């Protein structure tokens, strides 16, 4: 496989850019610029041999669908499942018994207003805690890692789900153990429903696991016995762990059968460090699709795009109308090639990462090396004839989401960088769990200017406790600018978000409303969701004073 420099792939990305803000007629878009038709066909060819049925949520077992109000007693355990065909892989899991059924990492269904009462019991030999990623809960229940559950101990959660409909997720957040535990399996999805969500599902006749498909993207390494490998070198700890085996819902080389209808995909980047440049490909072209929602729920209107970046921790809600794809031809969900922009040193980090990765994975010599930014087929979608007439259309309205209000105060600056000694920093400091680095007042409406150094890496910055709105992007790299609209905003910047990718050299202005309904002072963290970066210092504790 050919290697290219992480700083060489800066050619135009081509695409629909800011895209129309309301649905239009489907058409396959032109081949993304910077890629030839032959290059796109080569990506599609990777998927021709895919044969493993995509793992989908069922009524029990791994990713079984469970009401959030039945998620009451949760045991953090060591278990094993079949990930690679014919091999048993040890994993870490959230184990639950409910209604006579057993669940591992259940996909939770909640209604806005539901009361969650959860007892977490830790059977591991490491401390852990559940972080409810994206939910606006009080800091006692946030699972931010400032208080953890020791081995053999337990913790009770009690909170009301107050958030907009969206796909959130839950995962561990004990500092010092986050990458290891998440990589080994401790993570799953939490769907919140409200009236907007119910309306969309009814309007498009959507059913979870059939025409509404959650897709969790991850990359792993395995040894010859099928056991997960996680042993980052110093370079990988600093740059972020990237595995060479691509997984969708813990399925390698997956195939999904989909009807010729509108299908909804709920996407989560659950990787430790890998970002994806996603597109749906057919016959050498990128197919148009509609961005319906982001981390924190539905957009006001669908936005037509033909590709999108997805960084660790981010979620996207997309609608694909397969009636307009060419009949009898598979569609490939792919990650198009891009420059990951690992330029945090005075040398080309690509070669260093490649060398370190190869040395660390010598025992798995049979695996093809897959670097971040490579052209990758992730999943093949085989289109089937619809069993009954389907005449639904992409709606022109999705929710009553208002345009963000821009506070008039001077922005608070958040400068992302590193100290040259193996630590990632926020405003020059590294994480100290005993230090509150910043204080804000309850009810304050602030703008933050998140600035990433030129000599850096992309950082997906995640805010605990509150979601926010993106106001402006400045200084975006060449591969991002063609995707942007007014004020440099990307399509996914138009929604409510809790995780924001900030590319090297970018300055991104966001608006945050620190209003909440909790009692007393609150204590949260702000950090990079490249999990190794958070462990290497890029996390900051902040307090919200009542």
Structurally, the number of domains stands at: 3
Shape: globular
CATH classification, class level of the largest domain = Mainly Beta
* Sheet/helix structural class: mainly beta
Radius of gyration: 22 Å
Fraction of residues in β-strands: 35-45%
Query: What number is the mean pLDDT?
Result: 90
Contiguous runs where pLDDT drops below 50 for at least 5 residues = 1-28, 346-367
Question: Treating each run of at least 4 consecutive H or I residues as one helix, how many helices?
Answer: 7
Fourth-level CATH superfamily of the largest domain: Cupredoxins -  blue copper proteins
CATH third-tier fold name of the largest domain = Immunoglobulin-like
State the share of residues found in helices, binned by percent.
under 10%
Distance between the termini: 56 Å
Count the E strands: 36
- Second rung of CATH, namely the architecture of the largest domain: Sandwich
Characterize the biggest β-sheet.
7 strands, mixed
Subcellular location: Periplasm
Pfam family, one: Cu-oxidase_2
Signal peptide: 1-27
InterPro entries: Cu-oxidase-like_N, Cu-oxidase_C, Cu-oxidase_fam, Cu_oxidase_Cu_BS, Cupredoxin, TAT_signal, TAT_signal_bac_arc
List the helices and strands and how they pair.
Blueprint: H1 37-46, E1 52-53, E2 61-62, E3 65-67, E4 73-82, E5 88-98, E6 101-104, E7 107-111, E8 115-122, E9 130-133, H2 139-142, E10 154-160, E11 166-172, H3 178-183, E12 188-193, H4 195-204, E13 212-220, H5 234-239, E14 245-248, E15 251-252, E16 254-259, E17 262-269, E18 276-282, E19 285-287, E20 289-294, E21 297-305, E22 308-310, E23 315-321, E24 331-335, H6 349-360, E25 376-384, E26 412-418, E27 424-426, E28 438-441, E29 445-452, E30 459-463, E31 468-474, E32 496-497, E33 499-502, E34 507-513, E35 522-528, H7 531-535, E36 539-545
């Amino acid at each position: 496989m050919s290697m290219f420099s992480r700083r060489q792939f800066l050619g135009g990305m081509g695409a629909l850019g800011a895209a129309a803000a309301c649905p239009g007629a489907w058409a396959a878009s032109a081949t993304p610029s910077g890629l030839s038709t032959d290059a796109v066909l080569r990506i599609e060819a990777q998927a021709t041999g895919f044969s493993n049925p995509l793992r989908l949520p069922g009524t029990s077992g791994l990713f079984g669908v469970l009401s959030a109000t039945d998620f009451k007693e949760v045991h953090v355990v060591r278990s094993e499942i079949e990930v690679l065909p014919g091999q048993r892989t040890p994993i870490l899991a959230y184990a639950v018994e409910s209604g006579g059924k057993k669940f591992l990492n259940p996909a939770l269904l909640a209604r806005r207003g539901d009361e969650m009462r959860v007892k977490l019991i830790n059977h591991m030999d490491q401390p852990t805690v559940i972080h409810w990623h994206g939910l606006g809960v009080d800091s006692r229940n946030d699972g931010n890692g400032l208080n953890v559950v020791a081995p053999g101990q337990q913790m009770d959660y009690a909170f009301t789900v107050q958030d907009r409909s969206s796909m959130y997720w839950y995962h561990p957040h004990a500092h010092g153990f986050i990458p290891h535990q998440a990589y080994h399996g401790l993570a799953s999805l939490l769907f919140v429903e409200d009236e907007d969500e119910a309306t969309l599902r009814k309007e498009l006749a959507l059913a979870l696991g059939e025409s509404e498909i959650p897709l969790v993207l991850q990359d792993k390494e395995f040894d010859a016995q099928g056991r997960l490998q996680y042993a980052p070198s110093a370079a990988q700890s600093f740059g972020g762990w990237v595995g060479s085996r691509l997984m969708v819902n813990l399925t390698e080389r997956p195939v999904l059968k989909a009807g010729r209808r509108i299908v909804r995909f709920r996407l989560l980047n659950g990787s430790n460090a890998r970002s994806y440049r996603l597109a749906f490909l057919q016959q050498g072209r990128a197919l148009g699709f509609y961005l319906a929602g982001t981390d924190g729920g539905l957009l006001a209107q669908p936005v037509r795009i033909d590709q999108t970046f997805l960084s660790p921790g981010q979620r996207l809600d997309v609608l694909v109308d397969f009636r307009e794809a060419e009949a009898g031809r598979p569609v490939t969900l792919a990650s198009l090639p891009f420059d990951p922009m690992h330029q945090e040193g005075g040398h080309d980090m690509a070669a260093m990462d490649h060398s370190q990765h190869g040395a660390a994975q010598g025992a798995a010599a049979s695996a093809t090396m897959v670097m971040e930014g490579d052209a990758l087929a992730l999943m093949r979608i085989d289109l089937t004839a619809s069993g009954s007439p389907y005449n639904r259309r992409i709606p022109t309205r999705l929710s009553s989401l208002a345009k963000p209000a821009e506070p008039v105060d001077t922005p608070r600056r958040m400068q992302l960088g590193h100290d040259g000694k193996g630590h990632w920093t926020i405003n020059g400091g590294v994480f100290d769990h005993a230090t509150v680095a910043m204080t804000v007042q309850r009810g304050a409406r602030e703008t933050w200017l998140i600035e990433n150094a030129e000599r850096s890496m992309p950082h997906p910055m995640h805010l605990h406790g509150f979601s926010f709105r993106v106001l402006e992007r400045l200084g975006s790299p060449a591969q991002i600018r063609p995707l942007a609209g007014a004020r440099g905003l990307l399509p996914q910047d138009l929604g409510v978000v809790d995780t924001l990718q900030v590319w090297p050299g970018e300055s991104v202005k966001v608006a945050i409303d620190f209003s909440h309904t909790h009692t007393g002072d609150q204590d949260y963290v702000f950090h990079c969701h490249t999990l190794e970066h958070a462990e290497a210092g890029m996390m900051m504790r902040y307090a919200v004073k009542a």
